[in-house]
Amino acid sequence: MSTTETSITKRVDTDIVAAMKAKQEHRLTTLRMVKSALKNKAIDKRADLTDQEEMQVLSTLIKQRKESVESFVKGNRPELAEKEQAEIAMIECYLPAAACEADVRTTVQQVLTQLTVDGQRPGPKDMGTAMKVVRQHLLANGIRADGQLVSDIVKSELAK
To answer: For the chain, which domains are there?
Structure first.
């Protein structure tokens, strides 16, 4: 069991207690959902989650909420979109800060330089390979980045 995983789990548990005492109903239900998602993933794996796996679970929850926000905005339901936005903010506080576009671009450029073989730089047809290596590199360095942002940057860099 790693220290980050323990601290995330402990922080969620502590925050659940605090939300109960403060009678913050929306925060409480959101934190319980986060705890449940983490626990379900650990049960599926039949072992404790690593730092990356916990971050991946939280990232998935955030992505689901962002998709819901889009749907609610299209469906003219601003009150539900606002609720989902609040949940995103609550979940994001357990993750490291997301990397800015400049950091992601620097990482992508480094990876593409590494993938250059005999002076032949990868092109647009190498998108899948480049994305896989970039994702691995970001995960290994504990950098959190939006998948769409990474994809757009890789695409633009490969087109150069």
So the answer is: 3-92 (1.10.1510.10), 101-158 (1.10.10)
